[in-house]
Amino acid sequence: MESARVIDLTQPMDGAIPMFPGLPSMKISTVLSREASRTNYASGVEFLIQRYAITGNSGTYMDAPFHRYSDGCDLASLPLQSTVALPGVRVDARDASTSGRRTVDESFLNGADIRGRAVLIWTGWDERWPDADYLEPNPFVSAELAERLVDEGARLVGIDTWNVDDTDDGERPAHSVLLKAGIPVVENLCRLETLSSGEFQFHAAPLPIRNGTAIPVRAYAVLR
To answer: CATH number of the domain at 61-223, out of 3.30.1330.50, 3.50.30.50, 2.120.10.30, 3.40.50.2300?
Structure first.
């Protein structure tokens, strides 16, 4: 039996990764050092315990509906069925990155079957990570495409840029439309070029934080 191939779609995290302007970077501190821990255990045994201070919107992360709407699902109530073991489809939107067009609209779907699927929008923008130009104006999902994704039954939407919206648009239409419909959004994905147009499953389980709005996830695809 042929084994499954797992593709990691997650950007590694540390205090130097690109962050949405104004948001604090990740900080790692030591709660218990290896040296100090030696007094607690048998000879030769030591542990390191760390504390991570992380803004929810860091690295490859998921927005829950509660991020936008006070009555939406938070991270703890977001159904796992909406975030893991989802059949996936990759939408090739590289032209939005290379042509300066930026807007990813309905024309990029090219008849893709998106019902019940995780829709991953491939722009190639992740090639800029972690350089400063990653935070330049990025390709984004149009309001019309967001509405169509809802109408056609998408379960999750992901993109390999730092925002699914045009950050100059204060209305944030893609976030508003998708999260209103209970569709989680994953941003800062990477390596979508490794996904073929064939079948794959997408996984990105969030920590179940009560009243949580967004959290880094380990996003990956399983190919067969």
So the answer is: 3.50.30.50
